[in-house]
Design goal:
- The protein is an alpha/beta fold.
- The protein has helices at 16-28, 35-38, 49-57, 89-97, 119-127, 138-151, 158-168, 172-186, 194-200, 205-217, 221-233, 238-260, 265-272, 276-286, 291-309, 315-330; strands at residues 8-13, 39-43, 66-71, 103-110, 129-132, 155-156, 191-192.
- The chain folds into 3 domains: 2-132, P-loop containing nucleotide triphosphate hydrolases (Rossmann fold, 3-Layer(aba) Sandwich), CATH 3.40.50; 138-200, Helicase, Ruva Protein, domain 3 (Orthogonal Bundle), CATH 1.10.8; 205-330, Zinc Finger, Delta Prime, domain 3 (Up-down Bundle).
- The chain has 16 helices and 7 strands.
- The strands form 2 sheets. A 5-stranded parallel beta sheet has the order 2-3-4-1-5, sandwiched between helices.
- Helix 10 (205-217) packs across helix 12 (238-260).
- The longest helix is centred in the last third of the chain and has 23 residues, at 238-260.
- The protein is elongated, with a radius of gyration of 26 Å.
Length: 331
């Protein structure tokens, strides 16, 4: 409940979706009939800090604790605001020394770091409740998505959920949209299968490139050309495709080397700082190549990138020559 919130809180970090959700939950806790006088959302790029203080010091007209959400509090960071505001930080420091118990102020700012050199930040860390919203990765991201499907009252197996994340990526806003789409499709207490994910979720460029390298491994050159043509039709940048190919061949090479040393997928994933799922796939797919082949493919992509950047070859032709070279090596 809002009544239990501390007088001053600061939410910061790069995961804006989680921050927004937390603020929305706080807003929902204010009874609907009280929102006209006990809920206030202010943008600090438009509103001076002194006005936030003034509102916080004004008791609720009909009683109850007021919730004030003050967005874009960039003065706690090194970032420059889009619009310059002359915020009175001395007035804020004075307010912090005796914050009103009749209001709960929640500052938000999308930034990875606070400027801890500033006196105002040091004082906030002493007096206020400070929470960082980090981008979710690995098991934390998987748990969040599984919980989201559970809240939407649909079922999904862990391995299907991992595949879903691989396709969608780690943008929580996009993930949430796709979760809702799949949940509507299967209905209340429905089951989301791999087939449904494959049919309804558009593949990212990264997934298409993964599929492209997979087809190269399987020596299915016709399908390689089809994926390539589709990517060009979608106006994907060849240099970006080449960069992802390089990353994928590097992962395949690393997976093969480290597996030969007796390391498992989880251990390799931890060492490389990636999710275990793509590592498991890389271990499986690397079995289709020799170590020398993977070293050669990686060298081809790196050399092509250098030739493009030095102007020796046109970028589309450079990538296509890699396909032909790899096909010749694996044929």
């Amino acid at each position: 409940m809002v009544d239990k919130l501390p007088p001053v809180s600061l939410y910061y970090g790069l995961e804006s979706f989680l921050m927004e959700e937390e603020c929305n939950q706080l807003r929902d806790q204010v009874p609907e009939e009280e929102r006209d006088w006990n809920l206030l959302v202010m943008d600090l790029e438009e509103t001076p800090l002194e006005q936030v203080i003034q509102e916080a010091e004004t008791p609720s007209f009909f009683g109850g604790k007021r919730l004030i959400i003050a967005k874009n509090a960039t003065f706690f960071t090194t970032a420059k605001p889009k619009r310059e505001q002359n915020h009175n930080l001395d007035a804020w420091l004075y307010y912090l020394s005796r914050p009103s118990e009749s209001s709960a102020i929640v500052f938000t700012v999308v930034n990875d770091k606070l400027d801890k050199r500033k006196k105002v930040v040091k004082q906030m860390e002493k007096v206020a409740s400070v929470t960082k919203f980090d981008a979710l990765k690995g098991q934390a991201l998987l748990k969040w998505v599984m919980d989201r499907f559970r809240a939407l009252q649909v079922k999904i197996k862990r391995e299907v959920c991992i595949s879903f994340i691989q396709v969608v990526g780690n943008d929580l806003r996009l993930i949430n949209q796709e979760c809702e789409k799949l949940s509507l499709f299967v209905g209340h207490k429905g089951i989301i299968t791999q087939e449904i994910v494959d049919e309804l979720i558009p593949r990212t460029l990264e997934n298409n490139v993964f599929q492209l390298t997979e087809k190269l491994a399987e020596k299915k050159i016709t399908e390689v050309w089809q994926i390539w043509e589709d990517l060009l039709t979608q106006k994907e940048e060849p240099i970006r495709i080449l960069a992802l190919m390089t990353r994928q061949f590097r992962l395949l090479y690393q997976a093969k080397v480290l597996t030969a040393r007796g390391m498992g997928a989880s251990e390799i994933a931890k060492m490389l700082g990636v999710h275990p799922y793509p590592v498991k796939l890389a271990i499986s797919h690397s079995a289709s190549f020799t170590l020398e082949q993977l070293k050669k493919y990686l060298s081809l992509t790196i050399a092509a990138d250098q030739d493009i950047k030095s102007g020796k070859i046109e970028k589309v032709l450079a990538v296509e020559q890699i396909f032909l070279a790899i096909h010749g090596i694996t044929a």
